[in-house]
Design a protein that fits this description.
mainly alpha, three-stranded mixed beta sheet, 15 helices, 3% strand
Length: 347
């Protein structure tokens, strides 16, 4: 073994120990330091990947396993093959957390909104507020209570509007200097549809990859949600909250409608669990055009429904629970806590 090889292995071992310790020990707090690291890292990667119109990360996901297997078979000694098998996942582990994953460990800016309790009345008042806004927007956009909202905007048009909207927001965002967001159509859109996912952030290239099969009405929420991840908000409820609040304050009525629609869906879903009579009451208040848009979204998911979807989601549920999101996939719906307490703080 050469001296360079020994130094490399020693440095890598130290990096792994440091990464594991930061990720698993509450005594390590790198909030401030990691914000600076991530900000610089994101700005470098985003400027580079904006050069490409396609998702570089998706291509890397395709070729990396081939490269790993190719080099495995080039190794002759059995002992070296075993070391290689152990080393590759550890490298990926370290790269994942330093590139983006440590965002899971950061303190939440929205903790005060999460801690407050709320009553069924608070939930009802918030739901009524969003339904009123949603119905008004639907009539404004479709010129009738009966017509669903449709848009002729292209993917790129919606993407540009979403980026402009979130850049205009006066959030106390952790990383205020981030404004170049590589948002791409995912090459895996059809597999994502069958897996039940609308999009994802590639933690290695930091590209937001969007499933372009989803209905146009869902694109603004999905794109803005993934941009929130790019900014550094790893928790799903917080990314949902930033998406909804950004869109509902947009100057574009279509974006506003998309944000209010998903907010109403989450709120109605929670009411349904608690009081079916109240749920039926609020559903009857929705304009027919709004109901058609909800059906459009549901029809999309039914089209790609399959028995393997639950397994994919179960895997992602475990992943979230292992990264400080104890509710797993249910973390997405915890956005209602933020919506309700945010609304209550303003009345």
């Amino acid at each position: 073994m050469t001296r360079k090889s020994k130094i490399f292995k020693f440095v890598f071992l130290l990096l792994f120990i440091l990464t594991y310790s930061i990720n698993n020990s509450p005594s390590f707090d790198i909030n401030k330091e990691y914000i600076v690291i991530y900000e610089s890292w994101f700005n470098i990667l985003s400027k580079f990947y904006l050069i490409f119109n396609f998702s570089v990360g998706d291509i890397l996901y395709l070729i990396t396993p081939i490269i790993i297997i190719f080099y495995y078979f080039k190794i002759k000694r059995r002992r070296d093959k075993l070391i290689y098998i152990l080393k590759v996942p550890l490298i990926i582990y370290c790269f994942f957390y330093w590139s983006w994953g440590f965002n899971y460990n950061k303190n939440s800016e929205f903790e005060s909104l999460k801690k407050n309790t709320y009553s069924l009345e608070d939930l009802s008042l918030t739901t009524q507020f969003y339904i009123n806004k949603l119905n008004d927007l639907q009539v404004n956009l479709s010129q009738s209570e009966e017509n669903k909202v449709e848009s002729k905007l292209s993917f790129n048009d919606i993407k540009i509007k979403c980026i402009k909207t979130i850049n205009n927001e006066d959030w106390s965002l952790i990383n205020k200097k981030l404004n170049n967001f590589p948002v791409k159509k995912s090459l895996f859109s059809t597999p994502l549809s069958y897996m039940g996912f609308s999009g994802y952030i590639n933690p290695f290239t930091l590209e937001a990859n969007i499933n372009y099969n989803i209905p146009n009405i869902s694109l603004p929420v999905t794109i803005t949600h993934e941009i929130a991840h790019q900014i550094g908000y790893a928790f799903e409820d917080e990314a949902n909250f930033i998406a909804i609040k950004s869109l509902t304050k947009s100057n574009d009525n279509f974006l506003q409608y998309s944000g209010n629609l998903i907010a109403v869906q989450y709120l109605l879903s929670e009411i349904r669990k608690l009081d079916i009579k109240s749920y039926n009451y609020y559903v009857k208040q929705l304009n027919i055009g709004v109901v058609k848009n909800i059906k459009e979204k549901n029809d999309y998911y039914l089209k790609f429904e399959n028995k393997f979807e639950d397994y994919f989601k179960k895997g992602y549920d475990i992943f979230l629970k292992n990264n400080n999101q104890k509710a797993g996939l249910k973390t997405y719906s915890l956005v209602i806590d933020l919506l309700i307490n945010d609304y209550q703080s303003k009345i």
